[in-house]
Amino acid sequence: MTSEVMVEGTGAGRILQGMKVEQPSRVGVLLREWRQRRRLSQLDLANLADTSARHLSYVETGRAQPSRAMVLRLSEALDIPLRERNTLLLAADYAPAYRESGLDEEYMSSIRAAIDTMLTAHEPYPAVLVDRLWNVLAGNRAMAVLMDGIPPHLLEPRPNVFRLALHPDGLASRLANLGEVRTLFLQRLLRQVNATGDEALRSLYDEVRRYPAPMGGETEGPGEGEHGPSPIQVPLRIRTPYGELSMFSTMATFGAPADVTLSELAIELFYPLDEFSTKALHALGEWSS
Amino acid sequence: MTSEVMVEGTGAGRILQGMKVEQPSRVGVLLREWRQRRRLSQLDLANLADTSARHLSYVETGRAQPSRAMVLRLSEALDIPLRERNTLLLAADYAPAYRESGLDEEYMSSIRAAIDTMLTAHEPYPAVLVDRLWNVLAGNRAMAVLMDGIPPHLLEPRPNVFRLALHPDGLASRLANLGEVRTLFLQRLLRQVNATGDEALRSLYDEVRRYPAPMGGETEGPGEGEHGPSPIQVPLRIRTPYGELSMFSTMATFGAPADVTLSELAIELFYPLDEFSTKALHALGEWSS
DNA sequence: CGACTCAATGACGTCAGAGGTCATGGTGGA
DNA sequence: TCCACCATGACCTCTGACGTCATTGAGTCG
């Protein structure tokens, strides 16, 4: 997995012939748009946001880079929707500050139909709806293949993808390639923890990490294993009474993929990796319907 | 769609009883981990990154917040994989700086099989592989329903989701709810443009925006239409010779959803919204195979 | 135990840049 | 013509990133 340099900052204040050339700067333009939309003068907004009109002017024209706090204050004063505030922050080269929420609320119900459609349309392949913490909120019938025989204490408050997959009482014992899976899963979870700093996620990580690893040279924690370019995709090889099923999974979200907003829920879609698994899943699907 | 405040910054330097309490700060911890992994002393790294050991110590312990440039320089000196550098930036409350790339390269081919599996497994529903700029790189057979009768000039260098959907010679004329679709599509594209500042995306936006809108009160550009909480999900209602198909789409990506890295490619999955569409797509699928 | 490495940190300094205040001049609408 | 609005210059403050130098204290190793 290679990567490449992106836009290198916002591009404001580029040096040219020893002279700073002020470019409008994305935040500046965006803030101005919002202000005009609200029909406020720079002075009005400045008062509202408790800053000076002078500085605001400079920010809008790109002669000054607003601090993160300033961006947030202005957003607040302009009463900009949270989702757009994230856009502003990104435009100013700061990390987004808000995440979507409200799965439990109307949001979820408004797309409930879509979710159900997806889940059932994906049959006979397994699919689950998960929240930010990887809790399983719903699943289709094909999930039975995976959930079969999972002891209740793993479903307790609510099943969790990581616990299900890596807990010794869960799928772990049935995974033919537990080592691989465990490594990749933990790695991903850790990255997510580090990127978001979410405490709940961290404690999930701490818990899951303690689950026993399969024998064989364990690359302990994040420690040694040289984060190297990890294989984005790792198969899930599950031993079942019908034979070994090979699958991989992807995450489907609503909205654009580059939507840097940390999305609150996603659907994990499993796909078969080989002919046998495909047929087996189809057969199981027929049988159970 | 509601949102909620996130972690409110990194949490470093919280005020307590009028005294600053320095918390380890995520970046600090992460940087230290990387440095130790590289078996460098603070002094060594400081020299490599052309900074002072003193400051580095402060950064690691969270007594100082590194600037974006400093984070990047340290990452460089530590030879941290780009993907992880993004994690560091986020941990320091800065916007990520790198994006994944290399679809054309080995990356694509390494997951080529997975992509093919997904595309065909999704039949008889349409699905396409798109890149960052929404160019269509592959599609399954069910896409024929959508691509049918699209003039070659829209497929020219390479078909593009937005051009296909909104160009008058494209799907636009067949969309029963072009107005809605157009509004949502443009809105999303605009957000993406603003968040990423990507020039290529911006010019795509500028182009697509000029396409004729259907009659009826057009909420011009980003101007008036009060960005309000837009409906995350909008159906695509397409008139076909077989009747009107209703579908919605979601984006599937590889890797975690909260992976703030701007992903380079994604798969757009279409799902039927009603009984009729479901049956029609299945029937068409049967027929064409 | 002395020599050495390494990390933390105090004292002190520089400097860029965010952000403020006051004033001016230029625009365009009423 | 008056005024609201904006850009901008002159000038100021202050925070905080970051530098240098020196000290201390905790290992570690011969």
- For the largest sheet of chain A, list the strands in their spatial order: 6-5-9-8-7
User: SSE order of chain A, as H and E?
Assistant: EEEHHHHHEHHEEHHHHEEEH
Q: Largest sheet of chain A, if any?
A: 5 strands, antiparallel
CATH architecture of the largest domain in chain A: 2-Layer Sandwich
What is the number of beta strands of chain A?
A: 9
Total domain units of chain A: 2
The average pLDDT score of chain A comes to: 83
**Percent range of helical residues of chain A:** 40-55%
* Regions with little confidence, pLDDT below 50 for 5+ residues of chain A: 7-19, 217-228
CATH class value of the largest domain in chain A: Alpha Beta
Give the radius of gyration of chain A. 24 Å
Q: Greatest contact pair?
A: A-B, 87 and 86 residues
Oligomer: homodimer
Tally of DSSP helical segments of chain A? 12
